[in-house]
Specification:
The structure holds 2 protein chains of 2 kinds. By secondary structure, chain A is of the alpha+beta class. Chain A has 10 helices and 10 strands. In chain A, β6 and β7 form a beta hairpin. By secondary structure, chain B is α+β, with helices and mostly antiparallel strands. Helices cover about 30% and strands about 20% of the residues of chain B. Chain B contains 3 helices and 4 strands; from the N terminus they run βαββαβα. Chain B has a 4-stranded antiparallel beta sheet with strand order 1-4-2-3. Classes of the chains: A alpha+beta, B alpha+beta.
């Protein structure tokens, strides 16, 4: 792995950094501190700018019209894109566009026509429905939603929880048990239309983040055509698993960006705030907090870039992605906490973004597989075999 | 927390508003017939939280209305939830929300 950024990577990173500082951050002064959407005119203007820069639809594969930027560079960009108040869950307020659900790139041609292409055109939105009230860390065993074949349709019954975006989605990718005795070999992946009878969004699940909230779903005799099975029956777990590993890299990158922004604020404040006749920056206690922040950020950054590099080179990266997710989420939480401590009372107010980051970054140690599951994944890879 | 607000209504007047705590949260305003005419939120930009937001409602809507509040620091998601529930019950957002209806309001039910 080359530890130096290429000239192109440096240029792209600086361009995104400038965009965030000059276009995104100033808009946040007028938005609600918990906002996750821009006003429509700002959104349209910034989307046009991003398209002109050639960065729109970053994560869309090149063969489907994406800009063809490698994963390491996209990871560097993700670190820059989250460096503002809403950046953790709404990096740049989505003006860089999304790729939709990655699983759909593996769908058959008919499914691509009905779901993938409309999603890439921005006409449809999807959700990812894996976690259930019975648990999310061990989906192969926890999934209790059932799907029973009845003629040409599968009949789904069950519930999902902590599902983001389902209330505004046109369809979703839903995992259900199709063989009660086959463990992870008994899970099938379905594409479910949100307007089908039997599909219910029961409530918003209110959490530490007030925007980009999660929902609770219920399926009552929801009939799904056989043509909406994604992949093959009973092979859905691999689809879920692949997504979980891949998603850990941008998930880690977003946390690092927030930590970088919090550290910049902490350094700036330490150099201007005086206590007992001198700047905070002269106090060893504060200096060590700044140093510990820097170590946390650099450690998380290199682990995340290493995972991205291996994934880009098609090398095994499950252990590296788990390590990146584990370290980035935990380290970034510590950085935001120390930055808040340095800011004193102001750090806790909604006047500064630290308050929002502090709440939202706590979710990251649990979302996309908690820290303990990341350790379990790494232990399996290091020790070999599968165990409880 | 119940899904739908079910706290007792109070008359929308200065005395009742001044008794509301200056906290973050959501509220409903109903007309004399009991029809909910607006669902609002008091975010961190409000100088005195719910009290400021309700004072503004009184200035806009005038007397003859009632209100109820829910103190809630997750005001963004709760506000959207109340709007979605109103759409599920009545088919559209309250008439006082037609101008600030979120661009991507979800469906619940």
């Amino acid at each position: 792995m080359d530890l130096e950024l290429s000239e192109e990577q440096r240029l792209i990173t600086e361009t995104v950094r400038k965009f965030v500082r000059e276009e995104i951050v100033p808009l946040e002064a007028d938005l609600d501190p918990d906002a996750s959407e821009l006003e429509a005119p700002d959104d349209e203007r910034l989307v046009a700018m991003v398209k002109q820069m050639g960065f729109y639809g970053l994560d869309i594969p090149e063969e489907f019209g994406g800009p063809g930027i490698d994963l390491v560079t996209r990871t560097l960009m993700a670190i820059e894109m989250s460096q503002h108040r809403a950046g953790l869950y709404a990096p740049c307020y989505d003006v860089f566009g999304g790729a939709g659900l990655a699983q759909l790139f593996e769908a058959n041609d008919d499914q691509k026509e009905r779901y993938l292409f409309p999603t890439l055109r921005g006409e449809k939105h999807g959700f990812f429905g894996l976690t259930e009230p019975s648990g999310g860390s061990d989906p192969a065993r926890a999934i209790e939603t059932t799907a029973v074949l009845d003629g040409d349709e599968w009949v789904l019954n069950g519930a999902k929880i902590f599902i983001s975006g389902a209330d505004v989605a046109d369809y979703g990718i839903v995992f259900a048990r199709t063989d009660a005795n086959a463990g992870r070999q008994g899970i099938t992946c379905f594409i479910v239309d949100a307007d089908m009878p039997g599909f219910h969004v029961r409530r918003i699940v209110h959490t530490l983040r007030s925007t980009r909230y999660a929902t609770e779903l219920q399926f009552d005799n929801l009939r799904v055509p056989r043509t909406n099975v994604l992949g093959e029956p009973n092979k859905g777990f691999a689809i879920a698993n692949d997504r979980l590993s891949r998603q850990r890299i941008p998930y880690a990158a977003g946390c690092i960006g927030v930590a970088v922004a919090a550290q910049a604020m902490a350094i700036s404040y330490a150099n201007q705030r005086k206590t007992f006749g001198d700047f905070l920056a002269t106090r060893q206690g504060v200096q060590w907090m700044i140093v510990d922040n820097e170590i946390d950020i650099r450690t998380a950054r290199w682990l995340t870039l290493e995972a991205a590099d291996r994934a880009e080179k098609k090398q095994p990266y499950r252990t590296e992605a788990a390590a990146a997710k584990l370290v980035a989420t935990e380290a970034s939480g510590r950085v935001v906490d120390r930055a808040m401590q340095i800011h004193g009372g102001y750090g806790m107010t909604k006047d500064l973004p630290l308050e929002r980051w502090y709440r939202e970054i706590r979710i990251r140690r649990i979302g996309e597989g908690p820290s303990e599951v990341q350790r379990l994944i790494m232990a399996r890879d290091l020790l070999g075999g599968s165990f409880h | 927390m119940k899904l739908r607000l079910d706290k007792p209504w109070k008359d929308l007047n200065s005395a009742n508003i001044s008794a509301v705590q200056a906290q973050l949260g959501v509220y409903q305003v109903a007309d004399a017939s009991g029809t909910v005419v607006r669902i609002g939120m008091a975010g961190a930009k409000e100088l005195f939280g719910l009290r400021s937001a309700l004072t503004r409602e009184l200035q806009v809507l005038g007397p003859g209305h009632r209100f109820r509040v829910e103190v809630n620091s997750q005001y963004q998601s709760r506000w959207r939830e109340l709007l979605m529930l109103h759409v599920a019950d009545c088919g559209e957002v309250p008439r006082g929300n037609l101008d600030d209806r979120p661009a991507h309001l979800g469906k619940i039910g």
